[in-house]
Amino acid sequence: MGRLNANANANANAIASLHGTGVPAPLRFNSLEYTKALRPGQFPSEPKTDKDKEAYEASQKAVNERKFRTYWDAELRASVYLNEFIIGHPYWLDEMTKAIDKKGLHEELHRNKGEQLRKMLEVADERDERFSEIIDQHDAEGAIKYWLGMLMIDPGSAPATYQLIRVARRVGEVVVMCLKQNYNEPRPSQISPAIVPLIDPPVTPSFPAGHALQSRLISKCLDAAHRLRDQREMLFELAKRVADNRIVAGLHYPLDNEAGDVAADICFEMLQTGKKFQELLDSARSESYLEWNPDKRPKPPVPDRGWRP
């Protein structure tokens, strides 16, 4: 029974979403049974004869030439571009802070905090109308699916474009958390009992707004990929809507969003200087072109396996 319980627990733990895809992880039962199908002399069985050894070495050489696919787990692979961003711009935090301070956004927040709180109260009556939307967009996966749905971006058919979204989310998250730490601004509900948020605020400082920064950065990346012809403004309307929902929910001051937008624009400019990011952007543009011109898509070659009927 102990073994059965252990297997049951292992199987239950295995049912989880794959990072960056939302696809449930599949279970394969009795998988060890398939090892019995391996024939003697078949790689990786230990070779017995000289002929087997020759075939073994040829097989081993062939499998060592195999590489993993280019677009693996998009959320985790985004770390490659995050690394390029940080190495290429070691003083990015100082530059973004200076840009936000140059516009006086944090100073204005302190100078007009009462006015900012009143603006939040003025839009609080929109909560009923936006309730489902706010809840749906509260986490990253919920928000991202709005871009995926609007532009019909599928990780399978447009992996580079999908990767762009994940890069914007991952880089944007690190950027905004460092900026939040720098300003260390309390949430609106912490300083005014009149602000009762629709949902519990994240346990992070308020300024700047993460949803605003990441949403705008996603839209800027997709805009640069030329996913839309004459409706690019819809990308930024969506980004604004997602950010504004956080104000309606009582989680952010309006100026939090403005600061997030400023940081997103600078972040995108910095990303574009990276070689890996530019290659990704070029690949996404190619995907967009082929989507609009499917007749231009090259047909895959038919492999010659040396077999004849």
Give me a quick take on this structure.
The protein has 309 residues and is mainly alpha-helical. It contains 14 helices and no strands. The N and C termini lie far apart (53 Å).
Order of helices and strands: HHHHHHHHHHHHHH
Structural class: mainly alpha
The CATH homologous superfamily name of the largest domain equals Phosphatidic acid phosphatase type 2/haloperoxidase
Computed over alpha carbons, the radius of gyration is: 25 Å
Q: CATH top level of the largest domain?
A: Mainly Alpha
Helix fraction? 55-70%
Give the helix tally. Answer: 14
Number of domains: 2
The main sheet comes to: none
Low-confidence stretches: 1-20, 305-309
Total strand segments: 0
Folded structure, characterized:
This protein is mainly α and about 300 residues long. The protein has 2 domains: about 40-70, no CATH class; about 75-290, Up-down Bundle (Vanadium-containing Chloroperoxidase, domain 1), CATH 1.20.144. The chain has helices spanning about 1-15, 50-65, 75-90, 90-100, 105-110, 115-125, 125-135, 140-150, 160-185, 190, 210-225, 235-250, 255-270, 275-290. The radius of gyration is 25 Å and the shape is elongated. It starts with a helix and ends in a 17-residue tail after the last helix.
